[in-house]
Design a protein that fits this description.
The chain has one domain: Chitinase A, domain 3 (Roll). About 30% of the residues lie in helices and about 30% in strands. The termini are far apart. The chain has about 170 residues and is of the alpha+beta class. Strands 1, 2, 4, 5, 6, 8 and 9 form a seven-stranded antiparallel beta sheet that branches. The chain has a two-stranded antiparallel sheet with strand order 3-7. It is built from four helices and nine strands, in the order H-H-H-E-E-E-E-E-E-H-E-E-E.
Length: about 170
């Protein structure tokens, strides 16, 4: 009797797991059209609140929160920044402030280095910053991870970064 109940339970569990996995198809949940609509609504909301939304040639939207001083960051410069990355709905997905690899919360990297692992939109957005500037970047998925999942980033996700540039060491 116990074996029969165990077998029935195992079969029921198998079917529940199989059925529920069919219900969740994340590849259909995220589309380019949905991303564009969400991004346009987000940008319109920023404009409605009085933000001066600008756009780089490559297509990164940005809002200057605090003006910096001096020269703007260029390819080959070593930058020291703090950052927080958000999904368009406001959920935090990454921050340098809680990262054990950055004890002071500051990340240092070479802008557009051949070995860089930064997404293209992040690096493009850094070029609108000078020392002590703080900006909000709105990066379309085509300048981030595109149509592919990447770790915790689903496909077709516009990403929001708030970045403070602390130091520029010229190349």
């Amino acid at each position: 009797m116990k074996t029969k109940l165990f077998t029935l339970g195992a079969i029921a569990t198998f079917f529940i797991i199989s059925f529920s996995s069919c219900l969740k198809d994340d590849s259909k949940k995220y589309t380019a059209e949905d991303e564009i609509a969400q991004r346009e609504a987000y940008l319109e909301g920023l404009r409605d609140k009085g933000s001066n939304v600008q756009k780089t040639e490559k297509g990164v939207y940005y809002i200057v929160i605090d003006e910096g001083e001096g020269d703007f960051a260029k390819s080959g410069d070593t930058l020291s920044i703090t950052y927080s990355g958000y999904f368009i709905d406001g959920r935090l997905f990454d921050t340098s402030l809680d990262n054990p690899n950055f004890p002071d919360g500051k990340m240092e990297f070479v802008l557009e280095d051949d070995d860089s692992r930064m997404i293209p939109g992040f690096e493009d957005g850094m070029k609108v910053m000078n020392k002590e500037a703080k900006v909000q970047l709105v990066i379309p998925s085509e300048l981030a991870y595109g149509s592919q999942w990447s770790y915790i980033i689903p496909p077709y996700q516009t990403l929001i970064f708030v970045i403070k540039l602390h130091e520029i060491k010229p190349s």
